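EI: anyone free to look at a 269-residue chain?
SC: sure, send it
EI:
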Amino acid sequence: MRIHRRRRSAGVLLVAAAVSGLVAALLPASPALALPSGSGWSASWSYYHPTAYQYAGTLPGVRLTGYATDSSGTSGTVGTIEDTADDARCARVMLYAYGVGYIADRTTCGNGTSLSYTTASYSQGLLVIVYRMMPGTSTHDKGFYLHIPGSATDPQLRTVGTGASWSYYTSTAFQYTVTRPGVRLTGYGSHQAGDRRSSLNTVQKTAAAVGCATAKVTGGTATSGGTCVTGGSASFSRFDLTNNLEASACYQPIPGSQRCLALNIPEPW
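SC: here you go
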């Protein structure tokens, strides 16, 4: 059992490192001073059928909608990127499939314009990158990424309702959820003085079997909580997180191996 856990942990770390390295090259570092408004920023993905999931993202003047099939871990996706504002900006989406490379890159300019895409198949997860672009350049002034893990080695992901989301409901306050079989994390946060971010969370055990649900939010430092009580929940919070946050929810049946799902919650600029 310990050997399997070490192998799984190593695999998770390799995927996390790949995501971090790729995104670091594509998105600028978060600012150190006061943050601009997060209004209009959101992203989500979820399985609505055991063989299909949907994903979406918005920035001011940008809207992405996409759908993907999932046949035992092998996926293909279609989607549309839209420019939704008369703001002298363009909308761009880039899709990166692990083990394949870039499978879509679309940019559309002009209020009400849109472009669609259909991709090749992939099986190791999908990185969705959304930008607001300066016209006629390769420069973006807003952007985020959304990582959708592959289900080939984690078939429980294909359970209807599995997914994650975040959105700003005011210019400085945001909400997020991470859901997978056995566990659900619900959180809220806001920008604090001194470029700090708060995180107030509830983790719920949704499985009826014996096991434990845990969750963690990191950003410079970390806060976490968990419960092993059927139908139980636990709250945890922190008010001094910084930069982009990562929220993760895990469930470990007893006996069995722990499975986790993570979500990046970006710091707007």
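EI: The chain has two domains: 51-148, 159-265.
SC: 👍
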